[in-house]
Design goal:
The complex is a heterotrimer. By secondary structure, chain A is mainly alpha-helical. Helices cover 77% and strands 0% of the residues of chain A. By secondary structure, chain C is an all-alpha fold. The chains are: A mainly alpha, B alpha+beta, C mainly alpha.
């Protein structure tokens, strides 16, 4: 248990360091990278907290967070490249 | 047909692993939902080599363990760069040739390069990758050629 | 081996995995703050995403023993293993297309790969 508490503390420190980069920027891509790393750390933190509080359900939340984190990173990058998440065509299909 | 059965088995294994229930009623519901998903995937023409990569050799697992060792070594090298007082980085964008025949082989090779800290695949064109390397040691073309050979061994049946 | 010894060995194994993973995690997060530009920071984020995350998940697997929890942790690990290079590549490619270049570039062969124009044309 002490090990898990120690790893939770290490994760908090890492999250703080990543947050510094998230606020400092300077470019959009630094921020997206920081958000992506923040998401990975959040997944680990959720799993660690699930162990500390002895509630294995947290792992399901962690898994969902990993899925959403990946999709959101790609969505943000796509939006800032094309300024749209999809484009309606004459035939009604999305591109 | 093989792809459909493979996807069904994979989906049901995932369902079982995530639910952990073994009551007959719930198992029936699980099988039905997996069958429905396979039906939808078939209707959407998703049952190809990309969605159900059954064509890969089982040597992929061996390759992953080798890759794990490589990732560890290069993570150590990047950590030394980060912790060094002067930070001896010499950034470079280098062209890496890739000789894989299938698209899946290209994907595995490019992802392996990106997964190894110290090198990131930036752009892919047919036959070549543009790779960003952090240090001179990371930009080792013979290392990339070795990795490419190993990927070629697992890519197709 | 009796159960007590096995439990002790599992604890030692997870302790080693946690220590090494946590050290890599902190070094990577520190590198994310310290390194000079977005291109070098990609590699620091790579250290966090690969070695740090996977080793901590492996340590938790040792703690959980053989159960459903281990399976879920393995799924999370597999998912991170597959998606983290894709996300890193997406960031690198977006920065490249936006015209951001590494500082003090030692060697640049990008023209060789994408042709004469250093800026690829995009058809959204």
């Amino acid at each position: 248990m002490a090990m898990l508490l120690a790893i939770t503390a290490a994760l908090f420190v890492a999250v703080l360091l990543v947050l510094i980069r998230l606020f400092a920027g300077p470019t959009l891509y630094d921020r997206v990278l920081a958000v992506n790393t923040f998401g990975t750390l959040t997944v680990l933190l959720l799993s660690a907290l699930g162990f500390v509080t002895e509630r294995p359900d947290f792992l399901d939340i962690a898994m969902l967070y990993a899925l959403i984190n990946f999709v959101s990173t790609i969505a943000i990058l796509k939006f800032f490249r094309y300024r749209a998440l999809g484009r309606a065509t004459a035939s009604g299909e999305d591109v | 047909m093989t792809k459909a059965v493979g996807l069904l088995i994979a989906l049901f294994a995932l369902w079982l692993g995530l639910s952990g229930y073994f009551k007959p009623f719930l198992l029936t519901l699980g099988v039905l939902s997996c069958l429905f998903t396979v039906y939808l995937a078939r209707r959407m023409n998703l049952l190809d080599d990309e969605a159900v990569p059954l064509q890969l050799r089982p040597g992929l697992l061996l390759y992953w363990s080798w890759l794990g060792g490589e990732v560890f070594k290069s993570a150590w090298a990047v950590s030394k760069v980060i912790l060094a007082r002067e930070m001896p980085i010499s950034q470079q964008l280098i062209a890496v040739p890739c000789s894989q025949k299938t698209e899946m082989g290209h994907v595995i090779f490019a992802n392996s390069i990106t997964l190894t800290p110290g090198t990131v695949t930036v752009e892919t064109v047919p036959g070549k990758f543009l790779v960003h390397a952090l240090t001179d040691e990371a930009a080792n073309l013979e290392g990339f050629a070795d990795m490419g050979r190993r990927v070629t061994e697992v890519e197709a049946r | 081996m009796d159960p007590v010894t096995i439990e002790l060995l599992l604890n030692i194994a997870s302790g080693i995995a946690f220590t090494v993973g946590g050290v890599f995690l902190l070094i990577g997060a520190f590198g994310l703050v310290r390194l000079p530009d977005v291109w070098s920071r990609l590699h620091a984020a790579g250290v966090v995403d690969t070695v740090g995350a996977e080793l901590i998940l492996v340590g938790m697997m040792f703690q959980a023993g053989f159960s459903q929890t281990t399976l879920k942790l393995a799924l999370i690990g597999l998912f991170l293993f597959v998606t983290s290079p894709t996300a890193t590549h997406a960031v690198a490619n977006a920065a490249f297309v936006a015209g951001i270049r590494p500082v003090r570039l030692r060697r640049n062969e990008s023209g060789e790969v994408i042709g004469e124009s250093s800026h690829k044309e995009f058809q959204p």
